[in-house]
Design brief:
The complex is a heterodimer of chains A (273) and B (249). By secondary structure, chain A is of the alpha/beta class. Chain A has eleven helices and ten strands. Chain A has a single domain, classed as Rossmann fold (3-Layer(aba) Sandwich). In chain A, the strands form two sheets. In chain A, strands 6-7-8-3-9-10 form a six-stranded mixed beta sheet, with helices on both faces. A four-stranded antiparallel beta sheet of chain A has the order 2-1-4-5, covered by helices on one side. Chain B has 249 residues and is of the alpha/beta class. The longest helix of chain B is centred in the last third of the chain and has 18 residues. Chain B is globular, with a radius of gyration of 19 Å. The chains are: A alpha/beta (273), B alpha/beta (249).
Chain lengths: 273, 249
Amino acid sequence: MSLLQVSDLRIWDGITGNVFVPNSSFELKPGSCLAIVGESGSGKSLTCRAIMKLNKRTIRQSGDILLKGIRLDQLSEKEIGRRRGKQLYLILQNGMRAFDPTSAIGIHLRETLVHHYGWSRSEIVDKMKQAMLMVRLKDPVEIMNKYPHQLSGGMLQRIMIALAIVLEPDIIIADEPTSALDTVSKYEVMEQFVRLRENMGCSMIFVSHDLGIVRKLADEVLVMRNGSIVERGDASVLFSEAEHEYTRFLVSSHTALNEHFKRVTGGPVYVNR
Amino acid sequence: MLIVDRVDKSYRKGGFFSRERQQVLKNISFHYEQGECLGIIGESGCGKSTLGRLLLGIEKPESGSILLKGKKAGGNRAGSGSISAVFQDYTSSINPYFTVEQAIMESLGIGRDRSSRRDNHAKVDRLLKHVGLDPHCRTKYPHELSGGQIQRVCIARAVATEAPCILLDEAISSLDSSVQMQVLELLKRLKEIDKLGYIFITHDIQAAAFICDRIMIMRNGQIEEIVSTTQLMDVQSPYAKKMLQMVIS
């Protein structure tokens, strides 16, 4: 029984009639991590936002999206609003833009948690404190009193993960969460994603064009190109025995950099899963 | 060719009347030889891009000096024989009302000269081919091109100035990894054919190791270490060691 089932998803522009995603179907098993890889413009983000019904109004979609047997595509805006965050949690690429710039982090977190659970102030601070310590953010209370521009991109992404720990969503959709980060923060955020999967066993859809990260995290991989899924399979198999020419091209351009780096630094210094 | 000597730079923190200043660069000194590729790596906020702007002469150092072939950087009018640049944000680096041809012509500095028009036409063709673009692209506008293509146009434009050194400030960071690889290959090829030198500012250690001869590691506005790429495994400082271990491959 799959947790999320997407069948015959079609996304097109309602004004010009351009089709972005012609027909894609996939499913997410409970506790597993599905990675979507592909170049920019291949429809990865559109697919993610279609699941949450967050695309702009001019962009239309059809097809069935089933979450635990409930048709998400047929829900009203109000009903899906209650599910966003609590059941489907979205982590975006740019942490800076994901938070409200005019209010402190704590206010934003409180609004979200009150909306979904109606907890009291002290309860929220307590739970957030624990979660933030879990993602290695020191001094949680001080961070909650700060504004987004006072924190670094890596810290903001880890706050997003901490919020996910408190909300306990069914599915986390992470749309290029590490692309805007530098090497050090990327490593720290990835470490938290790996721990999140180990500790909570939550299901995840992970969108990225960085194959190194995908290899570290994903169980299954979808390769998208120009809106269609060109290949799918087990993460371990796909990297060594890609069938589609395009997948092989992606893998080869990744390994070229990697091989060179390994040669220069003299062997694998990284931590493998 | 380029000598940087004890450069300091700070910015005003807070409002316009604030006295508080944040030190961005502290006591930076290094040499850059013509034709070499120097990588500058570090976390975000460590002052890499500020250093890049100082080298280009867009901003002036508070103390210390930056000498380019014996002359002060940014002293004369920008252009002739100094450093050209390619930036990260490709959506805003070409005037949206310019075609590819106009963008490259502008940096040739001879766009208005009617007599040499045919020369220029051939020159643009050659430059576009040189960076792996179809000459038919010349009539297109930036929004009609993909990110990788625009970055190629920017590189063509930088090459057109015939500057001996190109500063690339996170030029490949916002591209897809497969396109990143193509651009890196292009840069490597140009380096061999044209004997171009690069100053390659990035946070991607793997990309820096791929293309650079020497790598400078920065931390909190100071140079932590400068190593040649072949000796990258022998970095001394603990910070650099830690950074190398954090690469996810």
